[in-house]
Amino acid sequence: MFLTLTVSAEVWAQYTKASSIAVGDVVVLVYESGTTKMELNGISTTSTKYGIGASYSTTPAGKYELTVEAGSTSGTFSFKAPNNQYLYWGSGNSLATNATKNANTSWTVTFSSGNAVIKNNKDNSRQIKWNTSSPRFA
To answer: Measured at the alpha carbon of residue 46, what is the angle toward residues 67 and 56, in degrees to the nearest 5?
Structure first.
């Protein structure tokens, strides 16, 4: 999982450390492995919410830009979606949006082997990542 930053209208730069992330940054969530390149492109309308992926060949299209805000506790971030709500984990293998900033809409971001590890502040066993067996972000 990569967290990429908007540098200009159509140029993206990949974060490599959490200390580079700043409130006000505009980011997209990206998964790349081999020839698979997916970016978060929205949230499903199904009863069990999850992140919809869109493939790209070279550069993410950035159709679901997230604005970085301070999370509900120190050291966390909240990601404001285009609907002006925050990425949210509620239960199970899900990803949704919610208008209220709280522990479920706050995330810690670390990096391991160049990949972003985005864990939920309420339950840090929950991460935002690409699910290869059931293609989606959750």
So the answer is: 50
Round to whole Å and give the CA distance between 34 and 66: 25
Residue 12 amino acid letter: W
Residue with tokens 């679901």: 64
The three-point CA angle 128-133-137 to 5° equals 25
Neighbours of 50 (CB within 10 A): 19
Mean pLDDT (whole number) for 49-69: 91
pTM over 0.85: yes
Pick the closest to residue 128 from 107, 111, 114, 112 (CA basis): 107
Contact, 1 vs 130, CB < 8 A?
Answer: yes
